[in-house]
Amino acid sequence: MTLPTIWFLLLFVLLIGYAVLDGFDLGVGVLHWFVPRTDAERRLSINSIGPVWDGNEVWLLTGGGALFAAFPAVYAAIFSGFYLALVLLLVALIFRAVAMEFRSKVESPRWRRVWDSLFGIGSLLPGVLLGVAFGNVLRGLPLNADGDFTGSFLSLLNPFSVLVGVLTLVVFVMHGAIYLAMKTEGRMQARARKWIWPTWLLSVVIYIAVTVWATRLAPERFEGITDNPIFWVLGAALLAALIGVPYFACACKDALGKAIVCSGAVIACMIGLAATGLFPNLVPSTTGTINSLTIHNASSTTRTLTAMLVIALVGMPLVLIYTTVIYRAFKGKVTLTEESY
Amino acid sequence: MDVNALSRGQFALMIGFHFLFPPITIGLAWLLTIVEWKAWKTRDPELERLGRFFAKLLALTFAVGVATGIPMEFQFGMNWSRYSKVVGDIFGAPLAAEGVLAFFLESGFLGLYLFGRNKISKGWQVFAILMVAVGATLSAFWIIVANSWMQTPAGFAMANGRAELTSFFDAVFNPSTIQRYTHTVTAALVSGAFFMAGIGAYLLRKNPNDGLARKALQISIPFGLAFSILVAFPTGHEHARQVARTQPVKFAAIEGLYSTKTGAPLVMFALPFTKPPQLKAKIEVPGLLSWMAFGDVNAPVRGISEFPEDQRPPLWLTFVSFHNMVVLGMWFIAAMGWGLIQMWRGKLWTSRRFLLVLIWSIPLPLAACQLGWMTSEVGRQPWIVQGVLRTKDAFSTTLTAPEVIFSLALFTLVYVALGGLYVFLLVKKVKAQASGQSDYAPVAQAEDLSILVAR
Known about the structure:
The structure holds two protein chains of two kinds. Helix content of chain A is 74%, strand content 1%. Chain A has helices at residues 3-31, 39-49, 53-70, 72-81, 83-103, 109-139, 153-156, 159-183, 186-194, 196-217, 229-249, 256-278, 302-329, and strands spanning 281-283, 293-294. Chain A starts with a helix and ends in a 12-residue tail after the last helix. In chain B, helix 3 crosses helix 8 (211-232), helix 7 packs antiparallel against helix 9 (235-246) and helix 12 packs antiparallel against helix 14 (363-378). Chain B has helices at 3-18, 21-42, 45-79, 81-115, 122-151, 168-172, 177-206, 211-232, 235-246, 248-255, 288-294, 315-344, 352-360, 363-378, 401-434, 446-453; strands at residues 156-159, 162-165, 261-262, 266-273, 278-285, 300-301, 383-385, 389-390.
């Protein structure tokens, strides 16, 4: 396997890490509008992700850094091309971060209502915007010979990409509902649980729609994909994980821990399958394949990719170890203490 | 206004605002490591309370720091795509390394530290805050590596229209990394010390017998004095010497030296004018600059006039920001030194006027950090990467001015609100502590209690 291929993989590993981990955070944030009914319940909802959301968001930051380092041309093209969308994403992430910290600091119900709303919007927008961005990359972007995006902001809001944005949101909400049910009890848990089944159904329906639509819009992504064993492995895993979600989440089984592993796997497989279709492109161009940004024409030098690989191989195992330790420390139902938000 | 000017304005706003918070976080994390360690060893309840109280302030500061930090990384691609393409082979790696090797550590363990008090042992508690401090300090390292490479690029060769890495080690440890890193981190420690000392001083003025506040001063003042000295000497001094060697035009602008001189004087005070370049009402010590920069009173120091006009940084801003930073640096030593003397004499707890001075000194190290950063960045102009890429050739050509006006206006509004809310909540928290109320006050209604009780 060549270095650019390894970095293509690692980049998607980071993206999957972000989507799986921050995915339930964002889902809990969207459900913050619907599931908790009282102030104490709202605090439970925020505190269920309190100790971990920040570490989860670092996956996005690291993914961005890795993209910059490994494929600078892609980083430059996407980030400048999606300018306004990213401005909105950043503002959403800013408000979401401070909403959790600020909300419980003042007792006034009005103050709390404002931050509850900002927490909800700040959790809704990132999923949708990242989904729309990903949808645009999948269908291809108008790139010129310099690798610069030549479309407009409104052209990014095409129906297909918006549907991918909706899919991302729905899957995150499903993931978040399982997490919230896992971390809470009683009436609140029951309310969170009610969200799992409908969001699961919607996820399946929209995913099928997106896939069928993609075969029409960007048939190049599917060329020879059936000859690729990775496609079959990921496809089978996606199917199994999709079945696993309602199977483990149903009241009779009540194995929410297993259900969340399944919903995490659903996210991972969906992104993995998309990556399989993209490879070796990172950003396909709609103005002729010559302008596409691929792992070959957009990557950094071998020396940089090697140095980065060393850093990743030293750092990521440590990250996984202490992330596991930290998650274990907060295992079980969330309770409110003096330390809570 | 063109996209270049607007993007520069936006970058200045975002880095300037963001850079208010990490220095406090870094300094406070190390101070809290000391507090928690001592609390663990002595089982002193005052120290335990001190830790709990400042942990909340750390959380508040960290939240705003994180919220404003993510936009920093995105900015390069969004507003500076040509820069990103030219330097990506080198500049991206430290940003990714910061995530992998530092930021995961910092934020992961901060969650454990803040929320784990009742779940983990005291020893783990100390370990968690230590990891936060280590993570924050490593984080600063990789960010300074990236920025130092823009100041004194090394370990690369220009090929295929971009800077290609030839030596990772040389790029990381470029000629200014160590000097700039040690100077910046000590400045952060000073910021944390003044933060803790100032808040302790406020609590003491409300209640001279407040044990928690006394501990805060007992820990932060010696700490603050040590690092106030270190930030000037050797770290500040060595950084200046490095600039003299590696960025002579920036050095000349910093020191207000307009024509090359042997036995160059050190300007202690002056009013600088850009056109024609001159200093008015100056007070200077002959030969001192030559001696400080090169260890010889007769060494020649190159003046600005030796450099072509299109390589000179803005003179006024570089000079003024540097000299005000130095003045503030002297103030830090004086304030912390006086504090230590008063503590020794047993008079600190009741020196109401000096305590007030400490309170109003809280923002000064942050101002010094801003001024230092401005010296560094403005003094590097007109280059974005010294000698490699000019700032005017770096912005994203795909952007239009209205887009950047929109984002600049939006971020300005958001940051003004954030800054206001941060100060409001900080003051509220400190006041609640002073009046002896815990601010833990859930809006508990009867129906909520069942949830709180039911485990």
